[in-house]
């Protein structure tokens, strides 16, 4: 006997109306592309209050500067890899109909003899117009991207951006800025490091430097040293030697009221290792504070792992294992000179600074903590 049909069986369910997807107005979208020595990274974002909301992103290791240290030129294979990545970026820009954008290249293109040929090649193959920015603008953009991480208790601030081909350091005196206005004062630096005629309290840039050593270029300089620990020690010493012209170098800095903000893959990787994250989680890393002792513990662990151990360590990742020790050498040198219990980790940098600068110039960010 056939089973009885339940009451209501066969009745049509009331359709559930899904809300239409809300797409941002293309007129409000901005893009920022950072082509560095090692990576090509892009953000597409929409202004939201005094912040922005990321709509799309792209990141790929292209190793544009591979071999640059020895030859002084960008290799054909490096340029080809980069153009392939930029084609993807172009498709994303077209998909989102982005009209406001800044697409910049940094240290590798600043140093390469054939940078002009490469820029023209990119334009011909992708239609994208890259501009090579100067170190001061790169440093300035890194600084303003970190404004929200500045503590109201901070009087002396050091912002460090460890890139693939260079490292930017900016020392800022906030002691004459009211505590509540310190993040805003950092944001105002997007117009330049020298104070203008603004009636607002300004952050004083004591000194800044762009050291032509990043995770890729520093590694390449000591590639011939076979001993892992010896190579690390030499890299750290060599980087510190290149800080001698930075005016705060010989100053003794008290920990009280002093903050370092580190923005780079090196700093975020060290933070992820400190937290024991087997899978990267930005919300746990961005804004994390670490002490010098905690950073040293992570670096000692990296050294004990050796090259093979670092290659298979999920906290480091296969894309970064070859560069982590040169980055750690830079970080250790900085903390040796200026020990702190307030190293703030920033998962942000040039792209975010480019977006803030564009939006600030257009007046589309609401007045808020910045």
Description:
The chain is an alpha/beta fold. It is 39% helix and 19% strand. It contains 13 helices and eleven strands. Strand 2 and strand 3 form a beta hairpin. Helix 7 (215-221) crosses helix 12 (324-337), helix 8 crosses helix 12 and helix 11 (292-312) runs antiparallel to helix 12 (324-337).
Write the layout of secondary structure elements.
Elements: E1 30-35, E2 39-48, E3 51-61, H1 68-71, H2 76-96, E4 100-105, H3 107-111, H4 115-126, E5 131-132, H5 135-145, E6 156-162, E7 167-173, H6 182-187, E8 204-211, H7 215-221, H8 228-241, E9 258-263, H9 265-275, H10 282-285, E10 289-290, H11 292-312, H12 324-337, E11 343-346, H13 350-362
Helix pairs in contact: 2-4, 5-13, 7-12, 8-12, 9-11, 9-12, 11-12
The CATH architecture of the largest domain comes to 2-Layer Sandwich
Separate helix tally: 13
CATH class of the largest domain: Alpha Beta
Shape: globular
Order of helices and strands: EEEHHEHHEHEEHEHHEHHEHHEH
């Amino acid at each position: 006997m056939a089973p009885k049909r339940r009451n209501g069986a066969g009745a049509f369910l009331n359709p559930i109306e899904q809300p239409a997807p809300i797409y941002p107005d293309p007129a409000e979208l901005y893009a920022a592309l950072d082509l560095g020595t090692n990576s090509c990274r892009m953000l597409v974002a929409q202004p939201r209050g005094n912040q922005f909301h990321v709509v799309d992103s792209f990141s790929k290791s292209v190793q544009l500067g591979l071999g640059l240290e020895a030859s002084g030129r960008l290799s054909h294979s490096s340029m080809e890899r980069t153009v392939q990545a930029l084609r993807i970026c172009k498709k994303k820009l077209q998909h989102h109909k982005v009209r406001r954008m800044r697409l910049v290249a940094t240290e590798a293109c600043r140093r390469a003899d054939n940078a002009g040929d490469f820029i023209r090649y990119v334009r011909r193959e992708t239609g994208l117009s890259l501009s090579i920015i100067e170190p001061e603008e790169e440093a300035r953009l890194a600084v303003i991207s970190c404004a929200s991480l500045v503590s109201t208790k901070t009087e002396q601030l050091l912002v460090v951006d460890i890139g693939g081909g260079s490292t930017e350091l900016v020392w800022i005196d906030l002691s004459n800025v009211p505590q509540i206005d310190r993040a805003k004062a950092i944001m105002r630096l997007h117009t330049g490091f020298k104070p203008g005629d603004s009636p607002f309290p300004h952050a004083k840039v004591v000194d800044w430097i762009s050291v032509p050593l990043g995770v890729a270029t520093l590694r390449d300089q000591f590639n011939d040293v076979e001993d892992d620990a010896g190579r690390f020690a030499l890299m750290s010493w060599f980087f510190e030697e290149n800080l001698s012209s930075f005016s705060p170098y010989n100053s003794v800095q008290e920990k009280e009221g002093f903050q370092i903000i580190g923005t780079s893959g090196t700093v975020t990787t060290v933070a992820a290792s400190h937290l024991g994250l087997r899978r990267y989680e930005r919300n746990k890393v961005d804004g994390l504070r670490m002490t010098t002792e905690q950073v040293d513990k992570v670096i000692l662990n990296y050294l004990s792992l050796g090259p093979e151990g670092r290659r298979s360590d999920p906290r480091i990742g296969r894309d970064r294992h070859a560069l982590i020790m040169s980055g750690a050498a830079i970080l250790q040198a900085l903390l040796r000179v200026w020990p702190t219990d307030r190293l703030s980790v920033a998962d942000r940098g040039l792209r975010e600074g480019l977006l803030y600068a564009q939006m600030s110039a257009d007046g589309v960010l609401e007045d808020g903590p910045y």
